[in-house]
Amino acid sequence: MGRRVWSWQSVFSTAVLYGSLALFTSILHNVFLLYYVQTFVSVYKIDKVSFWIGESVFLIWNSLNDPLFGWLSDRSFLSSPQSGSQITTPEVVLKRLKALSTNGPLFSLSFLAFWVAWASPGLQFLLCLCLYDGFLTMVDLHHSALLADLAVSAADRTRLNFHCSVFSALGSFSVFLSYSFWDREDFYSFRVFCVTLAAFSVLGFFLVSRLLRQRFQKEVLPKLDEAQTLKDLSVGHAPLTHPEKPVTIGQYIKQLSKHKNFLWFVSMNLIQVFHCHFNSNFFPLFLEHLLSDNISASTGSILLGISYIAPHLNNLYFLTLCQRYGVYQVIRWLFMVKLGLSVAMLLAGADHIYLLCIFIASNRVFTEGTCKLLKLVITDLVDEDFVVNKRQQAASALLFGMVALLTKPGQTFAPLIGTWLLCAYTGYDIFEREPVKVPDVAAGSGTPPLRLGCFYMVVFVPITCALLQLAAWSRFTLHGRKLQGIKTLRQGPSTATLSMSRPYELEELSGAAQRHF
Q1: Which GO terms describe its cellular component (predicted)?
Q2: Residue ranges of the chain with per-residue pLDDT less than 50
């Protein structure tokens, strides 16, 4: 039995296994983002008050569960215990993999709760959102934290992120398939489709997390045990940190409040989260009111699918640029491209249909592409936090959670602000059977007010977001020489205990947890 497992592990590298976890998340989450609002509004007939209450409660839960789960996961890492009882990086990795093997299948099952009516629409909307997001948070936190725990160098982290992009692109094909099954009048086929996706995801999370744990235990832990033996035999070595009391959550928040790069990053990322979810929530609406009269239904489905798959494929190119120019510079270029395309579309007007198709798709591609690179920036912030605060062990999941605490409100603001803007400008209310009639403000140009309103939303939102993001990103300093200095300090102490031993062991063991990418 052991031989069969080892043969599978020989076929799949650690980077492939790590990246495949993104597949089992994306095949479900893309369908969720695209259809959960339509399902409750069009199929379950949720009323506006219940929808707003559900989104408001979800805003609070969605923001608080990330730092809460991150703190529960990493609070033991924020102390500096006595020598001999320190929590090592391999133990952290195994803990995260164990959490993924449990929470991954539960996340997949919570996805199913949306597609069968089992309570009043308002109550089901609230409970489903909170349950789904709770398990999604656990999966995303531990998967993202592994990016910082498995590798320190920018090259290795970029390689891991590369594989995540490949598998996320594969997962986006569920959007193509979903369009064939979606029918608000006959929901049975779509339910069967969702059950199939969930079953595949459950099996995938269970098998891949188990394979990763077995590989890590067989290949990495023996090397680290030898490293610990050499460390115990070394004489005159000063420990990395002096024994201290555990850091409280209040002290940790105070430390982050002085972390300027963290604050500028979350300011930029809050806007990015808002823009990403704004695109996801209103993409079908823009297709319907801006393009439906000029393109076929099949063209619309292709455009929809491409908009979900292309960001992941394009991200493969962005990652190669990151290796050459750095993540900071690539993200800055993407903001500038987003601004330039939006201004060009505004000047061209709403009547250039093919240009509008390209713009709507490219806007989502560049926006989502930026989101995929931000995890690399957070891992750099983990390194800076580790060095500046002289931590015993990097609190990766907790820092990812604190980022989410301050940025995830953008996920809730997107549908709320979007529906409010649309109703305020055009009188169109998605919750009403018959939208409120408003004066034909664009009668002279022959453009319906709803179409004009959608056009202005689709161009002015990215223009505003890009300007604010460029302003915040210009204040972020964790790049170039400063970033290299932080990484040198992060990597240096971990190998210092072996510096007086054999050079071969120093080189071999310092990269033991990063060897199999």
Answers
A1: membrane
A2: 1-11, 80-87, 227, 230-243, 433, 435-447, 493-517
* Continuous segment of H or E residues that includes residue 184: none
Identify any residues that bridge with 244 across adjacent strands, giving them in sequence order. Answer: 80
- Tokens describing residue 213: 């744990």
| pLDDT tens digits for range 24-62 | 999 999 889 888 888 888 888 888 888 889 888 887 887
Q: Where are the alpha helices (DSSP H) in 75-120?
A: 89-111
Q: Within 10 Å of residue 326's Cβ, how many Cβ atoms?
A: 17
Longest dimension (CA), the chain: 86
Q: How far is CA 388 from the centre of its chain?
A: 25
The C-alpha torsion from 19 through 21 and 27 to 28, rounded to 10°, is -150
Residues 6+ apart with CB under 8 A from 117: 44, 124
In the block, which residue shows the tokens 């953008």? 410
**Helices vs strands, H then E, count in the chain:** 19, 0
What does the alpha-carbon distance between residue 143 and residue 145 come to, in Å, rounded to a whole number? 6
Query: What pLDDT is stored for residue 493 in this prediction?
Result: 45
Q: Which residues on neighbouring strands pair with residue 454, listed in sequence order?
A: none
3-state secondary structure of 85: coil
Concatenated DSSP letters for 267-336? HHHHHHHHHHHHHHHHHHHHIIIIITTTS-HHHHHHHHHHHHHHHHHHHHHHHHHHHHH-HHHHHHHHHH
**Strand, coil or helix: 435:** coil
Q: Which of the listed CATH numbers 1.10.10.10, 1.20.1250.20, 1.10.8.590, 1.10.3720.10 matches domain 10-245+259-514?
A: 1.20.1250.20
- What is the gyration radius of the CA atoms in the chain, in angstroms? 24
Q: H-helix or E-strand containing 25?
A: helix 14-38
- Residue ranges of domains in the chain: 10-245+259-514
- CA 400 – CA 321 distance, rounded (Å): 24
182 close to 35: Cβ distance less than 8 angstroms = yes
Cα 88 to chain center, whole Å? 26
